[in-house]
Design brief:
Blueprint (H helix, E strand, L loop, with lengths): L9 H7 L3 H9 L3 H10 L3 E5 L1 E9 L2 E5 L3 E5 L1 H4 L8 E20 L26 E8 L5 E9 L20 E10 L4 E4 L7 H6 L10 E3 H7 L4 H7 L1 E12 L9 E7 L14 E10 L2 E25 L1 H39 L58 H7 L2 H11 L11 H17 L12 H10 L27
Parallel strand pairs: 11-14
Antiparallel strand pairs: 1-14, 2-8, 3-4, 5-7, 5-14, 6-7, 8-9, 8-10, 11-12, 13-14
Helix pairs in contact: 1-8, 1-11, 10-11
Length: 512
Amino acid sequence: LSNPDVSCLDVYSLLSSKSTKQKKTNKQTKKPLDHVMMLWNRKYQEFDLVVSSVTTKVKGVTEARLPGVGDMVWDVADYSGPSQDKNSFFVVTNVIVTKNQKQGKCPEVPHTDRLCKTDKDCERGAWDELSHGIQTGSCVKFDVLRKTCEVSAWCPIETKRSPPTPAVLAAAENFTVLIKNNIRFPAFNFIRRNILPKMNSAYLRSCQRANDSLCPIFRLGDMVREAGENFSKMAIEGGVIGILIKWDCNLDPFMQHCLPKYSFRRLDEKESNRTLYPGLNFRYAKYNMVNGVEERTLYKAFGIRFDVMVFGQAGKFSFIQLIIYIGSTLSYYALVRTHTASTSENVGYLRAVLCLLQPGVKVDEDARPPLTCNPELKQKPRRPVWCKCGCCSPSSLPWEELCCRQSDGVCITSSPLFEQLMLRRSLLEAVLLYQDPLSPPADRGQTSDLRHCAYRQYISWRFGVPPTDTHPVIPSCCIWRVREKFPSPDGQYSGFTPVRMVPMEASADGKL
């Protein structure tokens, strides 16, 4: 109803004929691509999500020189950290060591807001998240220039903040890890692990991911490199690497395929200037007794945590899923055909409703055209040679020498439908009012509006909405029948030139 170019008569032409162009388009819409997509996406299968468990075993030994300690051999018990989390493992790559700590009293590490001048600046028993101990209430010398509050703590307090560069345990790049991943799909009672039956001990000792993507043994440096990082740089402050194991399994007997795919990604923020606490570190201590006094060596360990994340699904043929997919596909194409075939018709139907709501507008669907010319229309005394219906008039313009028929027969103006749709004054007034609701009704002295409206109705009825830059020609018999119904007072006729109206959204000034 928003397009004033098409009048109420569109519906009758659309109801009487279908769009052959749309039919051809629908016939050309085949479904081989849908069949391929059904097989590719396995829409015929029922799916179940993976249930997984992961265990890891890290291997590697290195010797590193620790500042203030000397050379030290590190094995898996030293660099794996104090505990192992579920589905993850930690490898120490750098360390700050504070030796020979004992319980006692010592000056707090200097900080901007921790310097003091007198004992009044230190509160006895106070502490905060940056404290290494409990304040005693005394202000003591830390060095020649600075004084800090005294604390009860493990002394001497750790003073170094920045990790060593290069990393102390940079050789951890060559360590390896064996990942054992057991999966299960409960809906299908299917169990598998990433160590396949063909993988024996000899295979595991020699396999390399460079030439075997299924090898479950991974070099730490290779995983970091595949994640797009540099191990030597990452080892200084530490970080988090994700090991992604994807299982995409087809459990149908003739297409069975269930193998893991590995990928790697860094999960933490790697740039120090973008985060307050870069990397990953923790502290742990080793205790011993010296002359009956407990001492400890404090380690601030920087390292890389590897998180193993398993996801995936398995599919198996399901007759029910196949029927559902076929039904939904057929319904979709039926909806598409119905929508595309009726998109232009819907406009006509709405206009039909508008027309039928107008008083006095009725169409006799059972009416049939008579076998003779309309009694009200007298045959022209000088019938042109090109006229086949007997109701045309000569014209000086070649393009107006057009008859409604190609062979002898009844004129289209004698059709009851022509009478109802083109010559009924109440209908034409309704169409004019619809196109311009604020226009005054056409009275007897303004029959030109009705006459031109009838011309537009004929074009809509017989041709629909003509394409841009086209000028449909109306048969001579129809033109003279309209002129006789709505004559010009002075007998002069300017002829009819269709003017395509501009939609409101396309108008430059927004005026209709």
